[in-house]
Amino acid sequence: MASAAANAPDGVNWFLGFVEAHGSTGYRTQMVHDFVNDTTAADQKLWRRRQAGGAWGGWIKLQWSQAEQDARYVQSSTALLQKFYESPQQTITSGGSLTLAHGLGVKPKLYAAFIQCTTVNSGYSVGDEIPINPSLNTTDATAQAISIVPDATNLNVRIGNAAGALKVLNKAGTGFNDITNASWKLVVRAWA
Question: Of 45, 19, 49, which Cα lies nearest the Cα of 34?
Answer without folding.
Answer: 45
